[in-house]
Amino acid sequence: MHRVAVLVLDGAKPLDVGIPAQVFSHRPSMPYELRVCGAAPGLVRGGEGLSYHVDSGLETFAWAQTIFIPGYREPATTEPPAAVVQALRAAHGRGARVAAISTGAFALAATGLLDGKRATTHWHYTRALAQRHPRVRVDENVLFVDEGDVLTSAGAASGIDLCLHLLRRDHGVGAANHVARRLVAAPYRSGGQAQYVPRSVPEGVGEVFAATREWALRHLAEPLTLDALAQHASVSARTFSRRFVENTGYTPMQWVLRARVDAARELLERTDLSVEQVAARVGLGTGANLRLHFGRVLGTSPTEYRHTFSE
After folding, report:
1. pLDDT digit string (tens) for 53-65?
2. Is residue 31 located within the same domain as residue 175?
3. Which parts of the sequence belong to the HTH araC/xylS-type domain (predicted)?
4. Which of 208, 216, 166, 203 is nearest to 65 (CA)?
C-alpha cells in the first residue's frame, strides 16, 4: 500500500481537497491508503461556507509517502503555519513526494522546496506566485509540472491530470486509465498542454494606444506591420514599439500574433470553418502556419482544441 496524505489548510477549496481523496481512495483495484489531515486535529475552516473535520494532524506526514496540498483561499496574502512548513520540509527530507493542486503551490513554495525548479498554479495566481517566490521558475502556461519529488498543477481540473499522472508513474497506463474511466475523466492530458485562459492577449494598462489595439483587432485578416500600427497611432515606429512593450509586456508583433491565435480559438469554438479557412480569416495565411503558432502559444493543435471546446 502506498500511503497518501491530503493536507487541509484554512480556506481549503472543496474540489481541490476532494480530487486526491477520490482518486486515491482505497478499494480493491487501488493499492493506496489515504488519510486526510490538518495542521492539527479538529475543525478546519473551508471555503464556500464549508468546514472540514479532520481526525489527525501533522504527525500524519511521518506515515505518508505522498502528500497533497490542495488549493486554498487568499494564497497571495496568507502565510501557511510555520509548523506546516517545517513538517513538509521534514517529510520531503525523509523521502516523501509532495504535490500541490492549484494555489496549494504557495504553501509548497513557502518551504523552499520549489526554489530553482519549475512550478505552476492557477493562471489567475501565476504572477502573484512569481512575485512572492522569485526563486521559483513559474510556468504560467502548463497544466502541471513534474519535478520528480515535488509536483504542482494548475486549476482544480488539472489536479485530476496530476493525480492520473502519478498513477501512471506508480502503476502504469492501465491503472491510470481504469481510474479515469471511473471518474469519467480524460485518461491523458499532457502536463505541457496550455492552461485555457480566457484570452492569450494581455489586457493593456490604461489607455495607451487603446484605439490602435481596437483597430488592430478589427483588421486581423489584413497585413499588420509595425509601421502600419505606428501610423494609426500617429507616432514613430520606434516610439510605438517602446511604449507598447511598456504597456502590455509584449512587442507589437507578439501581441498581434496572440490576438490572431485568440481569434482563431473563437472561430474553432463557434464555427465549422476548416483550419485553412480559420487561418485565412485571422491573418495567419495557411493551416500549417496556424498549427505552428497555435502549438507554440497554447501547446495543442487547432483540431484538438476544437474537439475539446467546440459547441
Report:
1. 999 999 999 999 9
2. yes
3. 210-308
4. 166
The predicted-structure confidence for 10-33, as pLDDT tens digits, reads as follows 999 999 999 999 999 888 878 999
**CATH number for the domain including 238?**
1.10.10.60
* Residue whose grid cell is 520531503: 92
Residue 300 lies in a domain: yes
Contact between 301 and 195 under an 8 Å Cβ cutoff? The reply is: no
User: 50's torsion region: left (phi>0), alpha (psi -120 to 50) or beta?
Assistant: beta
| DSSP H helices in the chain | 14-23, 82-93, 104-110, 126-132, 156-183, 210-218, 226-233, 237-248, 252-270, 275-281, 287-298, 302-309
- Looking at the fold, whether 77 and 144 belong to one and the same domain comes out as yes
CB-CB contact of 229 with 259 (8 Å): no
Global pTM value: 0.70
Q: Which domain holds residue 40?
A: 2-183
pLDDT tens, position by position, 229-261: 999 999 999 999 999 988 877 899 999 998 999
